[in-house]
Each structure stands twice: as structure tokens, then as C-alpha cells.
């Protein structure tokens, strides 16, 4: 049986009997406890995150969806891939870890295509994102980390084909207001560069905790993501991020509320 106890609701907790006047001008003893959280990017099955679908042809979600011409129709029912539950006719896609969505439309006649994705985040909260591309054949990548997807649709009819896959922008469990909140990143236990943007990874901060996310478009994830580039997740390497968590309010810890539905239908 698992038991859980909240030690204190205090803003700061000090531990020990050590005292230093300049450190504790109010006379309190002890050293302030830090709020560090080591997050390992593991699936619910306990294995590292799988590789992204780089070319979107060996897709974890679906590929070669052709002849789809019903604007606004839900594509999930015709998808079959690594993450779908029940194959063709599935009603939900469960991703291994919270991660972004990618797609590529191969219809040369499409000048602008908006793919709308609705699902849930790692905590089961409804979330949505609109992903836009305006060049046929190019990959469009979302920025928000979905744990499950229950609806994918678009605003234009497709007469050729579209491919869906997942990316390597992996979602964080807590909100980061700036890149400095990521203290270190390790791959298989070895620390990699802590620069904000490197050849190894890229950090994207979460949406402002002081505002409300009002649009399914735009870049920010509610909490933030880390995109692993080199080495990339492949189902065997273990990735861990040591992060500082602001636990003073719900929004500062978990980010602003998600946008639950896509704009424009």
C-alpha cells in the first residue's frame, strides 16, 4: 500500500541545526531545502521514449491516408499505427510519453493546410493544437506535448495523401518559466552540455503561467518541452532532466490551463 504525506504548506522549509548570521538574518537555523525534481522520460511500460517518426512514412500514428475528402472529418477512425488502440476504427491514440505531433501533406494542390489535434496531456486534462503547413511535401511539427489523441481533422479537403507521426519534443511534468530551470540533462547517466540550445537538445519554455492559453495555434506547450537531437530517443537510451520546480502556486508548478478545443471548428 502506498502512503503519501504532505510535510508542510510553508513557502520555505529549513533542515538541520547549522546557523550562519549572514545566511539567516532572522535567526533561524538550518539550510533551506531545494525544490529539484529529476524527471526520467519513460513510458508507462517503464521503457525509454521511442524514436520519432523522422520521415513520417514508418509512422507511429498513421501513413498513406488517401482519398480523404470530408472536411472536418475525424481521421482517427482510419488510422492504424504503433500508438493506435485497436487498429483501424480506433477512437484514441495513446503515445508512449507526452510528445509533439508531426504531419506531412503530399497533395500538391494544397497551399495551406491546418491540421487540428485534440486529446489530453500527461495529467488527463483536455488539450488541443492547430498545426499549419503551407508547402506540400514538407514536415510540419507541433509544439505541444500530447499523451493521448482522440480527434484529428483539418479545414481543407485532401485528395492525395497525408502522413502523421510523432516528434522528439518531449513534454515536461512541471512548468519552466525560463531555460535556466533545467539544471542538467543526462543520457544514460552521462551529463550533456547545459547550454540552452545545443546540438544535443533544445529547451522550449512553457506558456506564461500568469496568462490563460486562449488559442490552439501558436508555439508554447503549457509546461515546456525538451527536444532531444543527438543522441535522439531510440527506445534504449535513458534521458533524464533535473529541473527546478516553483511550487508556490498551481499555475507556477503546472502551467496555465490547457486550451481544450481547436479554434474555428
Would you kindly provide a written description of the structure presented here, covering whatever features stand out?
With 265 residues, the protein is mainly β. The protein contains 1 helix and 15 strands. The protein has 2 domains: 95 residues, no CATH class; 107 residues, Jelly Rolls (Sandwich). Helix content is 2%, strand content 34%. Strands 4, 5, 6, 7, 8, 9, 10, 13 and 14 form a 9-stranded antiparallel sheet that branches. Strands 3-15-11-12 form a 4-stranded antiparallel sheet, with no helix packed on it.
| Contiguous helical run count | 1
Could you tell me the CATH topology label of the largest domain: Jelly Rolls
Rg, nearest Å: 21 Å
Q: What is the number of strand segments?
A: 15
Provide the structure class.
mainly beta
Largest beta-sheet details? 9 strands, antiparallel
Mean pLDDT: 81
Distance between the termini: 45 Å
Q: What's the architecture of the largest domain, going by CATH?
A: Sandwich
Amino acid at each position: 500500500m502506498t502512503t503519501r504525506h504532505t510535510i508542510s504548506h510553508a513557502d520555505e522549509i529549513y533542515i538541520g541545526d547549522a546557523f550562519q548570521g549572514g545566511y539567516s538574518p532572522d535567526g533561524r537555523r538550518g539550510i533551506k531545502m531545494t525544490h529539484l525534481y529529476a524527471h526520467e522520460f519513460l513510458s508507462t511500460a517503464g521503457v525509454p521514449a521511442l524514436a520519432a517518426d523522422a520521415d513520417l512514412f514508418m509512422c507511429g500514428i498513421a501513413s498513406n491516408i488517401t482519398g480523404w475528402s470530408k472536411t472536418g472529418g475525424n481521421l482517427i477512425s482510419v488510422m492504424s499505427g504503433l500508438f493506435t488502440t485497436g487498429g483501424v476504427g480506433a477512437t484514441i491514440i495513446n503515445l508512449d510519453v507526452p510528445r509533439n505531433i508531426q504531419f506531412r501533406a503530399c497533395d500538391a494542390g494544397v497551399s495551406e493546410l491546418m491540421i487540428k489535434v485534440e486529446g489530453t496531456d500527461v495529467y488527463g486534462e483536455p488539450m488541443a493544437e492547430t498545426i499549419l503547413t503551407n508547402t506540400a511535401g514538407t514536415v510540419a511539427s507541433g509544439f505541444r506535448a500530447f499523451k493521448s489523441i482522440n480527434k484529428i481533422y483539418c479545414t481543407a479537403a485532401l485528395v492525395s495523401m497525408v502522413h502523421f507521426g510523432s516528434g522528439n519534443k518531449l513534454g515536461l511534468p512541471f512548468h519552466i518559466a525560463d531555460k535556466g530551470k533545467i539544471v542538467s540533462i543526462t543520457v544514460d547517466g552521462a551529463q550533456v552540455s547545459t547550454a540552452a540550445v545545443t546540438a544535443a537538445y533544445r529547451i522550449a519554455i512553457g506558456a506564461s503561467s500568469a496568462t490563460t492559453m486562449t488559442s490552439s495555434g501558436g508555439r508554447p506547450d503549457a509546461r515546456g518541452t525538451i527536444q532531444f537531437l543527438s543522441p535522439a530517443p531510440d527506445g534504449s537510451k535513458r534521458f533524464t532532466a533535473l529541473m527546478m520546480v516553483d511550487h508556490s502556486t498551481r499555475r507556477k508548478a503546472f502551467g496555465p490551463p490547457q486550451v481544450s478545443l481547436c479554434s474555428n471548428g
